[in-house]
Amino acid sequence: MAIPSFVDRVTVHVTGGNGGNGCASVHREKFKPLGGPDGGNGGDGGSIIVRVDPDLTTLVDYHRSSHRSATNGAQGKGDHQAGSKGGDVVLPVPDGTVISTPEGEVLADLVGPGAEFVAAAGGKGGLGNAALASSARKAPGFALLGEDGEERTVVLELKVVADIGLVGFPSAGKSSLVASISRARPKIADYPFTTLIPNLGVVVAGETTFTVADVPGLIEGASEGRGLGHDFLRHVERCAALIHVIDCATYEPGRDPLSDLDTIEAELTAHGGLEDRPRLVALNKVDVPDAREIAEMVTADLETRGMKVFSISTASHEGLDALKFAMAEVVTKRRAETAKPDTTRIIIRPQATGGVEFKVKKTPDGAWLVQGDKPERWVRQTDFTNAEATGYLADRLNRLGVEKALLEQGAVEGDGVMIGDGPNAVVFDFAPDVQAGAELLSRRGEDHRLEEDRPAAQRRKAKDEMYHARRSGEIEASPDLSEYGAGWTEDEVDLSPAESKAAQKAAERLARKQARELEAEQELRAELAFAAGQDIDIEAEDRK
């Protein structure tokens, strides 16, 4: 089956990229066993962005390729390295594309070059343990998981942005009129439903330039699905005015200009949304003698209805100039009424804050259901294989007031609690103020092991306290000339290799100093004895 060249309505499944997981890492460096957490954050996932491209006129690119996905964010790494972000995927669409849900809810109406809408947002990356560290939680042994990207189904519907819309029965001459007043060259033939797609033409009338679009022929019942026009009535919704192109030379029985006009107006009313558009009437094919007489007969009746009537011929170009300038007048008036201010106003609509962040209700089976954006998002970010991460989640829920709300509504220990009601819901037993972790005795989500002193540090503190006590006179000081001070032994000192080497050198220097002092003392005693006239046994002195 061949792919059509013009597609104005498609259904697209879009999926944003998942956020990368955070990294749980500890800095490692020589002689620094506790270097601190250095896990980086995960990267955000890419988003699906729908953006207007003025060079496009159809949605045919999405006719067969209807699934679009963005790339995922990368996982964080150690040494504070954040994961790379996922790449966004931009879906170019024609000007005038309306984005809605399959149920019909309008999400965005993209008009103007560069207008864009985020159809599926990428997931946020998870925080690494470096970002989770605090004064109370100095070395988190966990990180947060990245969030999943948004996934949804959207309907892209093209509504042609034109100033003038041409409506009428098949073979009334709409395509011929577009070809006569512009450089557009639509397909023209002498059989009904020649036009299968809307055609656009640019018309210049004096100093005014505007666009004209013709809609495939309408017949009675078009708004209910008959013929082709019901699929394209949406393309005249943006038009500033409508031109009724009426065939005055038709030979079909039961048809005349007035009945044709009433039929088309009934279909426009059934479609809805076009009641405020001004109407012009173009009585076509007046180059045929009988058609000219019919046009002259119905002109007065049409004018009594408040419509401007123009007798034209797309073959001989009769009356086309008057019709073009009438179109330009309507367009100019419409543009003046809907003129935009010179200054672009940026409208910021912040989300409401301060409301209820979660709801708690009891299910028929006696369990408890917790619903809310924050609790459900926190659950998706938690790695339940890590006891410390589970404790961190419990602390967050407690600070948010979930435990308090459950207790106030009558929840008791052991009751089942479910957070979220989707596929990612988590069910656990209610146990308020339970300690998390097998060996931790601290608060949930915290690790106080790093706050405890090592045995060597405790011994140093004790010796330091004793030293200051002796200095202050609280206890009697005793002379101590040992290498490490009073009461210290080499085996008790927890020294690094560099410190041990320095201590050994200091001990050798002390020993040499003591030997020199002893030798000098002996020489001094010998000199004193010689000066006093005492006999000195040189051999005995040498033996010493």
Number of strands: 18
Instruction: State the CATH superfamily name of the largest domain.
Output: P-loop containing nucleotide triphosphate hydrolases
Number of domains: 3
CATH fold naming of the largest domain:
Rossmann fold
Q: Supply the number of helical segments.
A: 12
Strand order of the largest sheet: 10-11-9-12-13-14
Fraction of residues in helix: 25-40%
Distance between the termini: 118 Å
- Mean pLDDT over all positions: 78
Rg measurement, Å: 44 Å
What structural class results from the helix and strand content? alpha/beta
**How do the helices and strands follow one another from N- to C-terminus?**
EEHEEEEEHEEHEEEHEHEHEEHHHEEHHH
Fraction in beta strands = 15-25%
Q: For the record, what CATH class of the largest domain applies?
A: Alpha Beta
Spans of at least 5 consecutive residues whose pLDDT stays below 50 are: 191-195, 435-442, 480-492
Q: What's the architecture of the largest domain, going by CATH?
A: 3-Layer(aba) Sandwich
Globally, the shape reads elongated
Major sheet attributes: 6 strands, mixed
Binding site for GTP: 168-175, 193-197, 214-217, 284-287, 313-315
Biased composition (Basic and acidic residues): 443-474
Main location: cytoplasm
GO molecular function: GTP binding; GTPase activity; magnesium ion binding
What do you see in this structure?
The structure is a single chain. The protein is of the alpha/beta class and 544 residues long. It has three domains: 159 residues, Distorted Sandwich (Spo0b-associated Gtp-binding Protein, Chain: A), CATH 2.70.210; 176 residues, P-loop containing nucleotide triphosphate hydrolases (Rossmann fold, 3-Layer(aba) Sandwich); 105 residues, GTP-binding protein OBG, C-terminal domain (GMP Synthetase, Chain A, domain 3, 2-Layer Sandwich). Helix content is 28%, strand content 17%. It has twelve helices and 18 strands. Strands 10-11-9-12-13-14 form a six-stranded mixed β-sheet, sandwiched between helices. A hairpin with a 5-residue loop joins β15 and β16. The longest helix is centred in the C-terminal third of the chain and has 35 residues. About 5% of the residues have low confidence.
